[in-house]
Design a protein that fits this description.
The structure holds two protein chains of two kinds. By secondary structure, chain A is an alpha+beta fold. Chain A has a single domain, classed as Arc Repressor Mutant, subunit A. Chain A is built from four helices and five strands. The longest helix of chain A is centred in the C-terminal third of the chain and has 31 residues. By secondary structure, chain B is of the alpha+beta class. Chain B folds into three domains: 52 residues; 214 residues, no CATH class; 196 residues, no CATH class. The chains are: A alpha+beta, B alpha+beta. Chains A and B meet through helix 2, helix 3 and strand 5 of A and helix 1, helix 2 and helix 3 of B.
Chain lengths: 118, 566
């Protein structure tokens, strides 16, 4: 099913799943399974996304009005629920991305400075 | 913006679609048909958990859960009516008893003074700490000083005694209350008929006006609506009735005698039968006052201290420095309930213990039942039910039971209210009528909630530390519960026993001292000994007293004694 055994993959940090979902939807609508696969593939199979955790997250984002959903047909002619980014979701994505970048940079700086001292 | 709530079946369909899509992808990657679907399901993880989380995420979930739990709890109650009845009765007893005592505490300790702005009412005490004397009473000139001080709206001495009443339907010995004319203005109460004393009446002695109690009005005057202006004779003096107090009215006294007066008389305490005013004659045993509006007790006390200091300077002959005369303000509320506070709180504590014992009992019962339901709980957990849901459900069951018990307790209390009022001893400063008011209702529901939490928690904690395989295996064989449950139950039984023991010892001690009181040796044989009291009238004016000396009394007493000689 994938190139890497599941045990080696990184578990998602708390709260990052929402950001990844929003980011995945920026290029167009996807169904849940497609989102899971996209996250896995674009991360180079580094991230472990438990499919079961994906759907409550999608539901949450939908309730907040950041994504919208409707039933449709997949490429191989199966019924699936397709999610797309709303205007509010796009704004949220920008905000979250900025926040994440700052956080990542700050952590990198700390880790980097320690590495430099060694 | 607000869309219709999504159906759970819609969510389930989405999950199924996901698994099919994933399986298809795996098949495309070359997995055999059967393995593909199994692998897809494995990758998905716990479907039930996802469904559960979906339901949790819906905004209405709390109400949803509560409703669900309530319905389930009701079903459980109906399924075992005997168990429910026992629990509800136990709780009704505990909550009913504590609420009953609380209603007494509420009427006496919490709202003891049924007068407007009770926080302004104070009792004024004179102390002579220099010679180790407390509550020595006040002299009439000091009373006048306080009235002029600007600290108080009104200041009134209070005192009372027995008096011979004639002129009503039959002669009687009744309690009278001797106050200043401003007394009813001070308390802020009005008679149901007629008018109170004129607060500014300058009469030095008795004003020869009286207000009578509702009881005396009905008993002695057949509730005569034209009573006002009629006269009655008290110790041979003629008093005009100017008013009738309302039925529930009571004076703010600390003893039953002080609270159950039948007639109120006003006096200036400066002429017969009182001696001429003198600073050294402390003839006023108790004085109460109403503070000026906006004055705190501490501020009033400091102004009073200044007044006392200047009086001591002005009258060095009357106030020797050695006695260190002090005047102390005590909230009237405190002076009224002071001596029963402890016993009432003790009683409340005892009833609280009974309630606690009831709780422990019920907790034990619930725990026994929980071990019978252990398999149900373990199974639900194994199927993916969140632990918080199970705990919430057990708590709901406990709360439902205790609230039903509290309700039953209140109903019993409501029906037995009249009977309860008779049980309350007269020595209790019960100026307010006992009533089931909001604070009592609040107490009852608070007690019910607390009780429900206490005994609902016992089985809930059991769930919180589950041992699924153990429970499933063991309880599948119909065993009586795990060792851990047995231990919890043992702890409960020990607690219950300890609590009961405390109650029993306290009750035993009380009984013992009571028995001791009954067996006190009198020092004489009381059999066939008769005690007799004779009350001869003492009119206000000593000149009109026909029984002034023992020689004058003797012929009367001799006449009486003739009737007792066999």
């Amino acid at each position: 099913m994938s190139t890497q055994p599941p045990g080696d993959r990184l578990e998602l940090l708390q709260g990052t799943l929402d950001l990844l979902i929003l980011r995945t939807l920026i290029f167009g609508s996807h169904h849940g399974q497609g989102i899971a696969r996209a996250i896995q593939q674009t991360s180079g199979h580094e991230l472990l996304v438990e499919h079961g955790a994906l759907y409550p997250a999608l539901q949450r984002l939908e309730e907040r009005g950041w994504i919208s959903a409707k039933w449709g047909t997949s490429a191989n002619n199966r019924k699936a629920r397709f999610y797309s980014l709303t205007k509010a979701g796009r704004k949220q994505l920008v905000e979250e991305t900025t926040k994440w970048n700052r956080l990542a940079a700050a952590i990198a700086r700390i880790l980097g400075s320690e590495a430099a001292e060694e | 913006m607000f869309k219709r709530k999504r159906d759970a079946s819609d969510f389930d369909a989405e999950i199924e679609a996901h698994i099919q899509l994933e399986a298809e992808r795996l098949r495309a990657e070359g997995l055999p048909d059967r393995d593909a679907e199994a692998a897809a399901r494995r990758a998905f993880g716990n479907v039930t958990l996802a469904q559960e989380r979906f339901r949790e995420s819906r905004s209405a979930r709390a109400a949803d859960h509560l409703w669900q739990d309530l319905r389930y709890a009701l079903r459980m109650l109906r399924k075992s009516p005997g168990f429910s009845a026992v629990v509800i009765l136990t709780m009704a007893l505990g909550i009913g008893a504590s609420t009953a005592i609380f209603s007494v505490v509420d009427a006496t300790l919490l709202h003891p003074l049924p007068y407007p702005h009770p926080e302004q009412l104070v009792s004024i005490r004179d102390d002579l700490p220099g010679v180790g004397a407390q509550d020595v009473g006040m002299s009439v000139p000091e009373w006048h000083d306080l009235q002029r001080s600007g600290i108080f709206d009104y200041v009134s001495p209070i005192g009372g005694g027995d008096v011979n009443l004639t002129g009503a339907s039959q002669p009687a010995r009744i309690r009278f209350y001797n106050v200043a004319p401003n007394y009813f203005a001070l308390l802020g109460v009005k008679p149901q008929l007629g008018s109170p004393f004129n607060p500014d009446d300058p009469t030095p002695g008795f004003t020869l006006e009286g207000l009578i109690s509702d009881g005396l009005w009905k008993r002695g005057f057949a509730a005569d609506p034209h009573i006002l202006g009629k006269s009655l004779r008290l110790d041979n003096d003629l008093y005009r009735i100017i008013g009738v107090m309302p039925p529930g009215y009571r004076d703010p006294g600390s003893t039953p005698e002080q609270r159950n007066s039948e007639i109120w008389l006003a006096s200036g305490f400066a002429a017969d039968p009182a001696p001429p005013p003198q600073r050294s004659l402390r003839i006023l045993p108790e004085v109460i006052a109403r503070l000026k509006a906006g004055l705190t007790l501490a501020a009033a006390q400091s102004r009073l201290d200044a007044l006392v200091a200047s009086l001591q300077k002005d009258f060095p002959k009357d106030y020797s420095l050695q006695t260190a005369w002090k005047v102390r303000l005590v909230p009237l509320q405190e002076s009224v309930v002071g001596n029963v506070r402890q016993s009432l709180l003790l009683l409340l504590g005892a009833v609280g213990l009974v309630l606690l014992i009831g709780c422990v009992n019920v907790a034990n019962l619930l725990l026994a039942r929980a071990s019978a339901r252990g398999r149900e709980m373990a199974l639900r957990q194994a199927l993916g039910a969140a632990r918080s849901r199970l705990v919430a459900q057990l708590l709901t069951e406990g709360l439902l039971l205790s609230l039903a018990g509290g309700m039953a307790g209140l109903i019993i209390l409501f029906c037995s209210q009249g009977f309860l009022a008779q049980l309350v001893p007269d020595s209790l400063p019960r100026l307010n009528a006992l009533s089931i008011n909001w604070s009592v209702l609040l107490f009852a529901s608070g007690a019910s909630l607390a009780a429900g939490l206490i005994f609902g928690l016992a089985p809930a904690l059991q769930i919180a530390r589950p041992d699924l395989t153990f429970t499933l295996n063991q309880q599948g064989r119909g065993s009586t519960g795990s060792g851990r449950q047995a231990r919890t139950r043992r702890v409960l039984v020990v607690t219950e026993f300890a609590l009961s023991l405390v109650l029993m010892i306290a009750a035993g001690l009380l009984l013992r001292s009571f028995a001791g009181l009954l067996n006190v040796a009198l020092g004489f044989n009381p059999q066939k000994v008769l005690a007799m009291r004779v009350w001869l009238p003492i009119p206000n004016d000593p000149e009109t007293d026909i029984y002034r000396t023992a020689a004058q009394e003797a012929p009367f007493l001799r006449e009486i004694l003739k009737y007792f000689v066999v």
